[in-house]
Amino acid sequence: MNDGSFRSFGIVPAAGLSQRMGAHKLLLPYQGLTLIEHVLSQWAASRVHHTLVVLNSADDVMIDKCKATNVVCVIPEPAPREMKHSVQAGLTWIQQHMEPRANDAWMLAPADLPGLSSRIIDLVIDAYDPGDPKIVVPRHGDRRGHPAMFPWSLMHDVFELNEHQGVNRLLECHAVMDVPVGNSEILSDVDTPDDYQRSINGNP
Known about the structure:
By secondary structure, this protein is of the alpha/beta class. The protein has 7 helices and 10 strands.
């Protein structure tokens, strides 16, 4: 249970090129905002202490959109090639600027998750126990979703991943506590036009 004795840092990788979408999916309209603005608004409404969005330095429109929100914009050079490189950039920024303690934790969810809510983020935060640190992941049915929360100590493992491994590898190597949730909003990202259409129709 979250007793207030640790800080949480949310990392939102948003440096991708939306190649399968055929358009910049994070700038598509969603509930009166762009998709990225909507997602970041949910992080801002949650109880996470700090939210970082990792961006591509060549993506001026995205940078402007994100700088207008209440998040930290991390813009590494060179631009991250994969999600794990974005996560590494976010963790490096936290290490350099926030003096994280051993009992702190970091969270991760993709930027293209329109169903992510502040309620789910807070549910994961509340489930985390710094006295018995485990990875915390929301689960709907038999599927795990986002955001995942990691003990700060596991940041080192992210930098030890080989070229074929993603951050999900950490869930295979360390203790995980699943938090059941009653809907599928934690599962549905937007990779294709059909995904986007389902999301705006309210059908994750």
